[in-house]
Amino acid sequence: MSTVVALGGNAMMRPGERGTAAEQLTNLRRAVSALEPVLGEPGLVLTHGNGPQVGNELLRQERAAEEAPPLPLWLAVAQTQAEIGALISAELRPALDGREAACMLTHVRVAADDPAFDRPTKPIGPFYSAEQAEQLERERGWQLVSDANRGHRRVVPSPEPLEIVELEVIRRLAETGTVAIACGGGGIPVVRRGGRLSGVDAVIDKDRASALLARGLGARRLLILTEVPAVYRNFGQPDQKELRELSTSDAESLLPRLAEGSMRPKVESALTFGGETLITNFDALNAALAGEGGTRIRGHL
Fold first, then answer.
1. Percentage of residues in the chain with pLDDT exceeding 90?
2. Out of 27, 266, 281, 293, which one is annotated catalytic?
3. Which residue, 22, 16, 17, 275, is CA-closest to 296?
4. How do residues 101-156 score in pLDDT, each as one tens digit?
5. Is 10 a catalytic residue?
6. Is 266 a catalytic residue?
7. What are the residue boundaries of the structural domains of the chain, listed by start?
8. 3.40.1160.10, 3.40.50.1450, 3.40.50.300, 3.10.150.10: which CATH number matches 3-111+159-297?
9. pLDDT digits over 230-259, tens only?
10. 51, 185, 206, 281: which one is catalytic?
11. Sign of the four-CA dihedral 284, 7, 166, 86
């Protein structure tokens, strides 16, 4: 029985940082230290987001378009899977007492007719002011939305993940004691056309992909690490309230009150997984594991 840990973007980048390799390694060193209580668990699988990194990669390609041909979004996702996997492996191995860490480039199948392609919602890239957002929408044709009172971000299609293509390979890695790093950035989005897999331009939500992976592996727990210590009712309001434990019905009734591009996918992912899910941040992880912090969603599996 494995544990799937979904690392949020703050594991690699903090507000105000540019996202250099040195900055990301420093942040990952702190993250790995915080993860020490779970690193010894058998069958550990790590997943991670890539919103800032894939946004930066697209900016690089755009600005170098006259010198080198730009790549489609799905290949930018693949590039950042390898980039972030290499960074995580570099900081993780010294903490594993001789065990191995392996980054698995992971394809995730989606439906070609998913309605998400007509309604982009997934934030990627840096935050912009309202004035910058208006200019980018006008000049580049991007769609931008306000993201949890932190600014405006570009949004792209985020179809529902249907299949982890490399699921059995990830399972074999986990069964040998290797810490698998998988489903980076939600996975490389692909559709099946005949006997082939074809990439599509989208970004899959990493928490939804992590839930699908955890369910497929028969994991005993899904641990979602984000920027806040718990799920809150009325987040950001004077009467916000930390929610320590939620039943499945509690979580379902809370969904309409949660931000679509922020906490809602995490709670939805917990419901999709169906087992025990713990949502917290690195600072509160020890307390959450001890039942004294975070938000625990009791599953029905």
1. 67
2. 266
3. 275
4. 999 999 999 999 999 999 998 777 778 889 989 998 888 778 899 876 778 988 88
5. yes
6. yes
7. 3-111+159-297, 122-156
8. 3.40.1160.10
9. 999 988 888 899 999 999 999 999 999 897
10. 206
11. negative
